[in-house]
Amino acid sequence: MCSVYVNADPIQYEARTRSIRINNVLTTIRLENLFWDVLAEIANREAKNTNQMIAALYEELHDRRQDIPNFTSFLRVCCIRYLSLPRLDKAAIESASYRTLHATPASPLRH
User: Fold this and answer.
1) Among candidates 28, 35, 26, which has minimal Cα distance to 82?
2) Going residue by residue through the chain (111 aa), what tens digit of pLDDT does each one get?
3) What domains sit in the chain, N to C, each tagged with a CATH number?
4) DSSP string, the chain
5) How far apart are CA 27 and CA 62, in angstroms?
6) What's the whole-model pTM score?
7) Exposed, middle or buried, 76 (CB in 10 Å: 0-12/13-18/19+)?
8) Are 76 and 31 in contact (CB under 8 A)?
9) For the chain, what is the largest distance between any 2 Cα atoms, rounded to a whole number of angstroms?
10) CA distance 82 to 75
């Protein structure tokens, strides 16, 4: 069973930092590539780009809770919750896997 996890491509758990503008404030978010891929898939389903979707999530969360102590953890939980939903679109999964497997440090992921 462990081989399913330990044989993951290291690029999937390599962390990448991106700058994102939320409410006209530039901030950085550092997530593992696999999470960036899942966020891109979610954004695609919402007909948004990744930055727009993250900003929308932040605004909705802020409207509900006001205080957001760890937004990056919130994004990881969003990804896990999304992945726990029934999978409807095999093409989206294949697309996310392709982006992860074909990214190189010299060519950062573009979402």
Assistant:
1) 35
2) 688 788 888 888 899 999 999 999 999 999 999 999 999 999 999 999 999 999 999 999 999 988 889 999 999 999 999 999 876 566 666 666 665 555 544 444 444
3) 8-101 (1.10.3990.20)
4) -HHHHHTS-HHHH-EEEEEEEETTEEEEEEEEHHHHHHHHHHHHHTTS-HHHHHHHHHHHHHHHHS--S-HHHHHHHHHHHHHHSPP--HHHHHHHHHHHHT-BTTB----
5) 16
6) 0.73
7) middle
8) yes
9) 45
10) 10
Distance between CA atoms of residues 9 and 24, nearest Å? 36
- pLDDT at residue 85, as a whole number: 85
